[in-house]
Design brief:
The complex is a heterodimer.
Chain A lengths: L1 E3 L9 E7 L6 E2 L4 E7 L3 E5 L4 E6 L6 E3 L3 E6 L48 H10 L17 H17 L31 H16 L2 E9 L1 H16 L6 H15 L5 E4 L4 E4 L5 E3 L1 E3 L2 E3 L2 E2 L7 H16 L13 E5 L18 E5 L3 E2 L5 E10 L5 H16 L3 H4 L2
Helix pairs in contact in A: 5-6, 5-7
Chain B lengths: L5 E8 L3 H12 L4 E5 L6 H6 L1 H20 L13 H26 L2 E4 L1 E4 L4 E6 L2 E12 L3 E3 L12 E2 L1 H4 L8 E5 L3 H13 L2 E5 L11 H14 L2 E3 L3 E8 L2 E8 L2 E7 L1 E4 L3 E3 L32 E3 L10 H15 L13 E3 L5 E5 L2 H6 L5 E6 L4 H5 L6 E6 L6 E7 L3 H14 L3 H6 L9 H10 L13
Parallel strand pairs in B: 1-2, 1-6, 2-3, 6-17, 8-15, 9-10, 9-15, 10-11
Antiparallel strand pairs in B: 4-5, 5-6, 7-16, 12-13, 13-14, 18-19, 19-22, 20-21, 21-22
Helix pairs in contact in B: 1-4, 1-8, 3-4, 3-6
Classes of the chains: A alpha+beta, B alpha/beta.
């Protein structure tokens, strides 16, 4: 049996093999790391899904691999009966490169995984048909009870593939199609040096292009007086420090955001383009943009509404550390409902952040400035998806957020 | 006389359930097929020396057991008189009828049947030694379905007919006063049940720590209970070291409970496994490869290392069951005919026709534990089934092995009367990827034993009408 690249997380469908820990003949245990993959946002270990002996390593360092691709063939642990070479007709599920979700349909990248390691549930007749068509059912989303794949699901999937073939959708590249034409020889005008674009950079480019081209963005700016808030911070920062928590402006912002998101749930939602439904989320997982040496990564702080300021401060710090060390797990990057990008530590004033699709809004925070009357004023902007949110709500949202920060309740800070 | 080679599309070697099913399916797909078996009676071990005769004998002797139980229900029968010749003739009659049925079906499908031993001359040619002389067959593809035979370790092979394998035991030449059964697998258990009903004193010896290895212990215990009551002894973890002829008996040396004993038995049944029939087929003249146990190596399309030859059934090892061979036969034919079929994720039910019957399919609880797969278990004891109690068969259990989170049915196990027939619903459930809820939502007729499947699922959700299971959080 072959071990395949599992689902890597939202929007992540490929990566580059950076290390291989096993060789042919090795005995591996379930969950043992086989290879490490530099995927879009992190270096992720790919574990074995079962015990066995490595009969063949199907990738090498530097290979670009996609979700569902086989990386290692495992034989039975006892070294018996490795089947003879199958004839040419042996069915190989075609290695299917999933498109960027928005380009054709929203099926996106899907990989079935079951808690017991069982194959995807489907009736024998549907499985036979999939065999005949060479379709890997683990890529088909089942809609029936228990996730069972019906004939209709299989048919939809095949139509989706056909659509894909007809529209020739290839994942967006770093340069938009319009510019992708001939390379320009810049050395004609002076010395240049070149550097390959890392897979993380490519992914950022792909996500930003997709978001920018598919979402009608509006950015609403506002200023907030954070003099009192910063006094609060000063008053408690040492006490927090003793508890091992770093009380920062971002922690305050996350805390305040949750209360405002609860009031304006459309900012904590996603648009399902397929079903034309707005999906409101009753959980508050906030993404926080982190600047790393390799580029932007957005880890997600889960269930912020259920955490007090100490927990938020502590976990935020840990998450950011992990991210900078590129030790963040795939799970830490998944499931965000709203994103915060705080550039205040660097400087500059207002900017227009790009929405982290499939979210519908993002907060961009700049550096606070002293006003003429000695108050500390923080400029910020919220970009939102105009398909879901109208301007009036956008304005209401920034005002509410400013108020929440201005009148931050000391009770929330007290230890 | 040597005749001119015949050209065929497909030659099938071996007319057991796998072989004849494959031959017929290939013929249905328009191929010219020759079916070869060395036995004039088609049907292989299953029909002639396995499933069918053993089930006939179990059915016939079940009545003996039933009539004894009847006493406690107020209806008493006299001790039965047993006419072995008549019993044997009745059993043989069933075999003849079924075997002729296979031959007739072959004829109607235009499948030519040859009687004789087949031998591969090379990867394209099969030589058949028929009673009328040698025949040569040139084939496009060959399907090897030569099956298996009972293993008889050299140390036990005394050339004495009192040491039997299942083949001889099914002929019931006599009812031995004392019968030693070596091997507590399903064959030993089934034949032990037959001979115990006929009146033999049975001692069963098993090298492993339990009988019916492979069955979950909570299901097998009902059979263990029966054996403990109806056999003189069941000795686990016991090895037979030696056998020797001693007059009209067999002297057997074995070691159990740390002591060596020598005992005399009228007959011995050796049921310690089965060996493939792949020797002397001329496979060395082909590219077919075998493992160290003599089973032919195949891939998931049943293709051997020789591109012209596929193999199915007991000859390729794995579960040695007729219905597994049949499924493999179908897939092999489809593979030959250029379809994309593969033998993958096929649910093969196992049935043991003991008292009571045991049946399971898919993932068993013990297998899940061995492989560290997390599962949830739902059980329904038959003591709570109206149907089971009203037929005096409250000894039994239906259980579901479920996937956490999804409640998908990964396996089903049943112990109890008619389990072999009841399991099919479980097989369908596993094949369909059904969930416990699907089973609980499906109305089952009352009062029947099939309700126990529904009630096991209901019990899982804590709302079975007939047992109270506080819902697990």
């Amino acid at each position: 049996m072959d071990i395949k690249i599992p689902n890597l997380g939202e929007g992540a469908d490929s990566g580059t093999v950076v290390s291989i820990y096993i060789k042919e003949g090795d005995t591996v245990k379930k969950d043992q790391t086989l290879i490490e993959l530099e995927n879009e946002k992190a270096v992720a270990p790919i574990p074995s899904t079962q015990d066995g002996v490595v009969t063949k390593v199907l990738v090498k360092v530097g290979d670009k691999v996609t979700v569902g691709q086989s990386i290692v063939s495992l034989g039975a642990g006892n070294g018996s009966a490795s089947a003879p070479a199958p004839s040419a007709r042996t069915v190989q599920a075609p290695s299917y490169q999933a498109p960027a979700p928005s380009t054709v349909l929203s099926s996106g990248v899907y990989q079935y995984s079951s808690p017991s390691g069982s194959p995807p549930p489907a009736s024998p007749s549907v499985r036979k048909l999939a065999q005949d068509l060479g379709i890997d059912l683990s890529r088909v989303r089942g809609t029936e009870n228990g996730g069972r794949i019906s004939l209709a699901d299989l048919r939809n999937f095949v139509q989706y593939l056909q659509n894909l073939a007809l529209h020739g959708a290839s994942p967006p590249k770093i340069a938009a199609d319009t510019v992708a034409a001939a390379s320009v020889d810049f050395s004609k005008w002076g010395p240049v040096h070149k550097k390959a674009v890392s897979s993380l950079r490519q992914k950022i480019a792909q996500k930003m292009t997709e978001s920018w081209t598919t979402i009608p963005h509006v950015t609403q700016f506002e200023d907030v007086d954070i003099t009192v808030l910063m006094d609060l911070r000063k008053k408690y920062v040492a006490a927090y420090e003793k508890k091992g928590a770093k009380l920062t402006l971002t922690s305050f912002i996350l805390k305040a955001l949750v209360s405002v998101l609860k009031k304006y749930p459309m900012f904590n939602a996603s648009l399902d383009e397929n079903t034309q439904e707005v999906v409101y989320k009753d959980y508050y997982h906030l993404g926080v943009a982190v600047d790393t040496e390799q580029g932007l990564i957005v880890p997600v702080l889960k269930d912020v509404d259920k955490k007090n300021l100490t927990q938020i401060s502590k976990e935020l710090e840990e998450l950011a550390e992990k991210t900078r060390a590129r030790k963040v797990s795939i799970d830490d990057l998944k499931g965000g409902t709203f994103t915060v990008s705080n550039l205040g530590g660097i400087g500059g004033s207002y900017f227009t952040p790009i929405i982290n699709k499939p979210e519908v809004a993002i907060l961009g925070v700049s550096k606070g400035k002293k006003s003429s009357d000695g108050r500390l004023v923080l400029p910020f902007g919220v970009s939102y998806d105009h398909r879901v949110i109208d301007g009036a709500d956008g304005a209401r949202f920034v005002i509410a957020l400013a108020q929440a920060l201005e009148s931050f309740d000391e009770k929330e800070v007290k230890l | 006389m040597v005749s001119k080679p015949v050209q065929v599309d497909i030659v099938v070697l071996g007319a057991g359930p796998g072989g004849y099913a494959a031959a017929f399916y290939a013929a249905d797909k328009g191929r010219k097929v020759v079916l070869i078996d060395q036995d004039k009676k088609l049907g292989g071990v299953c029909l002639n020396r396995g499933c069918i005769p053993s089930k006939a004998l179990l059915h016939a002797t079940k009545l003996v057991h039933e009539s004894e139980l009847s006493k406690s229900r107020g209806i008493e029968f006299a001790k039965p008189k047993i006419d072995l010749d008549k019993l044997r003739a009745w059993k043989d009659g069933i075999i003849d009828k079924l075997s002729q049925g296979v031959a007739g079906t072959a004829q109607r499908r235009g499948v030519e049947v040859l009687t004789g031993r087949g031998y591969f001359e090379d990867s394209d040619t099969l030589r058949v030694e028929t009673p009328e002389g040698q025949r040569f067959i040139k084939f496009q593809k060959a399907i090897i379905a030569v099956g298996s035979k009972p293993a008889l370790p050299k140390a036990f092979d005394l050339g004495n007919p009192r040491v039997m394998t299942s083949t001889e035991a099914l002929e019931i030449e006599d009812v031995p006063k004392s019968l030693l059964i070596v091997g507590g697998g399903y064959i030993g258990m089934e034949l032990g049940t037959v001979y115990a009903a006929l009146g033999s004193k049975i001692v069963m010896v098993e090298a492993l720590p339990s009988i019916l290895a492979g069955a979950d212990a909570d299901l097998a215990r009902y059979v263990v209970k029966y054996a403990e009551k109806n056999f003189s002894a069941v000795r686990l973890g016991t090895k037979v070291s030696k056998m020797a002829t001693s007059g009209k008996q067999i002297k057997v040396s074995m070691e159990f409970d740390g002591k060596k004993v020598e005992e005399l038995y009228d007959r011995v049944l050796v049921s310690v496994g089965r060996a493939s029939n792949t020797a002397d087929l001329g496979l060395k003249n082909t590219k077919v490869q075998m493992d160290e146990k003599g089973f032919i190596k195949v891939n998931t399309r049943l293709e051997t290392a020789d591109p012209k030859i596929v193999a199915i059934g007991d000859a390729v090892g794995g579960l040695m069951l007729a219905h597994k061979a049949v499924k493999e036969g179908r897939i092999a034919v489809e593979a030959i005919c250029g379809e994309s079929s593969v033998y993958e994720n096929v649910v093969i039910p196992a049935v043991v026709f003991t008292e009571p019957e045991l049946a399971w399919c898919g993932l068993t609880e013990s297998e899940a534990r061995a492989k560290n797969i997390e599962v949830k278990i739902a059980r329904f004891p038959w003591g709570a089934s109206g149907r089971a109690l009203s037929t005096d068969r409250g000894e039994g259990m239906t259980k579901l092995v479920l996937e956490p989170e999804t409640d998908r049915i990964l396996g089903v196990g049943i112990a109890g009367a008619g389990a072999g027939d009841l399991i099919s619903e479980g097989v369908l459930a596993v094949e369909m990827g059904a969930t416990a809820e699907d089973l609980a939502q499906t109305v089952h007729p009352h009062p029947t034993l099939s309700e126990t499947l529904m009630e096991a699922a209901e019990a899982f959700y804590g709302h079975s009408s007939h047992i109270f299971t506080p819902k697990k959080s």
